[in-house]
TrEMBL record:
Residues 1-19 form the signal peptide. Keywords: Signal. The keyword Signal applies. The keyword Signal applies. It comes from the Bacteria. This is SH3 domain-containing protein.
Length: 101
């Protein structure tokens, strides 16, 4: 739990995604090819973005059925090797599939 909040604090400061975040891909669901990204791990939270199925993300934390992800957006390139910042938010964990390293 402490790791989640430490990672979240870094992201809120505009830090690059930590190297320890395993990659995953957004899978979508039967109703929609887009998956909502939330400000906090709750459906009652504000939606901050929508990710298309096939979007690659980094899973940097989990809480309950939620995954805290870092991803590239129009404003953030999310290339950790280049020191770029990532867009972040919470996604329903069931809408992600792990990728092999």
């Amino acid at each position: 739990m402490l790791t989640i909040f430490a990672t979240l604090a870094l992201a809120m400061q505009g830090a690059a995604a930590p190297a320890a975040c395993p990659p995953a891909v957004v899978t979508g669901n039967a109703q929609s090819a887009r998956v909502a990204v939330y400000r906090s791990p709750s459906l009652a939270s504000r939606k901050t973005d929508r990710l298309r199925a096939g979007t690659r993300v980094l899973v940097c934390g989990e809480q309950g059925g939620w995954a805290w992800v870092a991803y590239a957006s129009r404003r953030n390139s999310c290339v950790p090797a280049r020191g770029a910042t990532c867009a972040t938010g919470w996604v329903d964990r069931r809408r992600l599939a792990a990728l092999g390293s």
